[in-house]
Amino acid sequence: MKPANLLRVCFSDRTASKAREELIAKNLVWEDLFRAAEDELMIPALHARFQELGVLTEIPADAKSFLAAVENLNLERNQQILSELAVVAYLLNQVGIEPVLLKGSAYFLTGVYPSPAGRYLWDVDLLIPKLQLQTAVDVLSRNGFEQGSDDRLAEFRHHHPPLRRKGSIFFELHHSLGMGLCSSLLPASEVIEHSTEFDFQGTRVRLPSPTHLMTHLIMHSQIQHPYNERIWPPLRAMRDLLLLRRRFDNEIDWSFIQHQFRKVGRPGVLAMHLLQVRDTLGSETPFAIRLTGLTYLRWLRRKLLRALPPLRFLDPVYMYSTVLVRRLRVLRNALGTPGGRRRIASEIFAPGVYRRIATDILEGQGR
Questions:
Q1: Please, how many CA atoms are within 13 Å of residue 105, restricted to the half-sphere of its CB?
Q2: How far is the C-alpha of 157 from the C-alpha of 327, rounded, in Å?
Q3: pLDDT tens across 41-51, in order?
Q4: Please, what is the angle between helix 267-281 and helix 254-263, to 10°?
Q5: I need a surface site. Which of 208, 275, 279, 356 has the fewest CB within 10 A?
Q6: Are 218 and 241 spatial neighbours (Cβ–Cβ below 8 Å)?
Q7: Strands 146-147 and 163-164
Q8: Is 293 exposed, middle or buried (0-12, 13-18, 19+ CB in 10 A)?
């Protein structure tokens, strides 16, 4: 079995017995499995998952030691990140701002992940009311947080350019949950209004409702990043969905989520993603999805592209989504911002622009 397929089998409850059989096989190349897990940012989750599967005592000692060490190191790293989050929250509280936590950090505080050891954090996303955004940036800047410079068009996105202190990770201060139709699918004002206050290490932060957490997760995976109607969503995001359902399924309003995706003309995107999570991780869809007509054809297209990835180069929808959609969103924002036209004109001739486009096309399966 290919390492990437084995990784999916390991995290699917439907194939637990198959996973146990494969993991104790004498011919398993552990380095290949770890490499596949690294590509998906899933190595920290393996130790706990193998414990759930009951195979920790049967795998090679060096593999077991490696996974335990990774889990401990990730726990230490995430604890440091959460301590830095407490500093950020304290500074924002001083100017009357209670940030709304998004994605990974919100999953930790709501108990979606019982331990911070089980999920890798890339950065910390905070939602700030738009009118308070500059105040938030100013107070962090005065206290040693500096702006990253990797993204030359960062000021035209749905968040301020990332900020961090030396030796720490980036904090993204969002004023919106996404560009384009994302702002209509999940308005920032609604997320803030329905969030709840949470005492975090003596500071005041806010947590989105379970329904908004789920809506944002699916929207981010399928529409916002990195390309529209993502055919290859990361395994970590699919597992987030599974764990979020386990933690809050009775509190998630799926009729609201369906309505929001219909409102922006993307009900098929929601259906395709839930079907893909079902097939990958064995999670039954939260509502009935009928595979008829166009929905059936779209599902066949997804399965075909996943089975034969080179076909994506011949798929006009894929190519349009990969190459143009995100860039058009940024272009629209830039054209409506003072100085934006001049910046876009200079970027057309900037080194690396077309190399990044080629990378998007060739690595569209990536995170």
A1: 29
A2: 10
A3: 999 999 999 99
A4: 130
A5: 356
A6: yes
A7: antiparallel
A8: exposed
**Backbone torsions φ then ψ of 100, nearest 5 degrees:** -95, 120
pLDDT in tens, 250-285: 999 999 999 999 999 999 999 999 999 999 999 899
Mean pLDDT score, 137-148: 93
Provide, rounded to the nearest whole percent, the portion of the chain with pLDDT above 90.
65
**Residue 39: C-alpha distances to residues 2, 107, 242, 298, 350 (Å):** 14, 21, 20, 27, 29
Distance between CA atoms of 176 and 274, rounded to whole angstroms?
24
> Closest Cα to residue 172, out of 204, 127, 139?
127
Range of the domain at 333: 314-362
| Interatomic CA distance for residues 154 and 148, integer angstroms | 9
| Residue 40, in any domain of the structure | no
Is 357 within a domain?
yes
CA distances, 27 to each of 6, 41, 112, 149, 284 (Å): 13, 24, 35, 46, 32
- Is residue 321, in this structure, part of any structural domain at all? yes
